[in-house]
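Quick one: sequence plus flavin-adenine dinucleotide SMILES, need structure tokens.
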Amino acid sequence: MSKQLVLIGGGHAHMVTLANLHVFVEKGYGVTVIQPSEYHYYSGMGPGMLGGTYRPDDIRFATRRQVEAKGGRFVLGKAFRIDPDKQLVHVQKIVGGKEQKTEEEIPYDVLSCNAGSYVPQEMVRGDYDDIFTAKPIEALLTARERILELAATKKITIALVGSGPSAIELAGNIYQLCRRQGVTMPRVQLFAGRTFMSGRPAQVRRLTRTILERKGVEIIEAGYVREIESGRLLLENDRSYQADIIFPAVGVRPSPIFAVSGLPTGPDGGLLVDEYLRSTGYNNIFGGGDCISFAPQPLDKVGVYAVRQNGVLYNNLLACLDEKEPEKFSPGGTYLLIYNLGDGEGVLAKWFITFSGRLAFRIKDYIDRKFIRSFQNT
Ligand SMILES: Cc1cc2nc3c(=O)[nH]c(=O)nc-3n(C[C@H](O)[C@H](O)[C@H](O)COP(=O)(O)OP(=O)(O)OC[C@H]3O[C@@H](n4cnc5c(N)ncnc54)[C@H](O)[C@@H]3O)c2cc1C
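Reply:
Sure thing.
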């Protein structure tokens, strides 16, 4: 049997590998891509999709079509365990939109993991309705429908828990959504812990706060949320708040499959990789994006790093199959940060430059559209 390359997830760090899948196939290697959806959504444009700036088709890659057109095999399912000694990936298949009992063991010679991250839900109690997370990005489509359904009949309250990039972008875009669709404008409350956007530069915090408050977002800094249940939030100081829809947006954690599989992991549970984006325990396992823990230095969970890792990951997968030397990944310097706060406004920060307004959003929109178009039709 020919050597097998298996990709878990067709995320942001696998874009170049997927675009060049035919190169592996032409060399005689088998390629299998496992993903729980036929599409991969570009997260940077997710809040814009919620707000209606983009349609789902504008922000997604047709992973299945791309893989099959290039001679690879696409498996619709979730990898739930890796057996690094037997070189197998255990997959739970998805049929008719549901996870099935059907499992498959997929053998690999070289494995690359780009399974992303998830929003932890430990604070959510009991069975719940109308609680949505920003990941997977496609869940925002369901959230969008629900907001419109409820806001069509009454003034609703929407709570966002957290004040990182996803919470602030969702808050701003909820207003855009309701305004554009002509439903009753909701009350939007952002539970920011004790300090709004703590850890971010003062100027970025100030500009973001100004835009959100102008829209009507109530920024609550009365303490951290301790518990969430349907329709209710409880703070650490026992104060409670009611909300019709709640978005926990308290940061992300790497996919749990590495810890479950007994692979070496970093402090956050991500696949521990060296400067070659290669598992510190196994020379034939690689990874990129939010699911890795980069041993040389901690990296923020932002798409920018996943995108920067593309070329090195592709070259190193090919090198590993060809039994050649891998190349090193360098994370690069400061990255450009732009928040889309809805209604065509944004906040931009890089080095000593920080500004807000329409130009900031236009720059983000241009970069995001350019990136997605460059990979949508490969
Ligand atoms: C609302 C929001 C807005 C953001 N905006 C920005 C921004 O503007 N700029 C920026 O740099 N960063 C942004 N981020 C952060 C960015 O989303 C992440 O850093 C980025 O998504 C990481 O890419 P990834 O490919 O590693 O993971 P993901 O985008 O999560 O992709 C992982 C892929 O793996 C698949 N997968 C997951 N589990 C499995 C499994 N078990 N088996 C097989 N496949 C699996 C998923 O279906 C998905 O296709 C934002 C995040 C959010 C939530």
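Residues 303-322 form the longest helix (20 residues). The longest strand covers residues 73-83.
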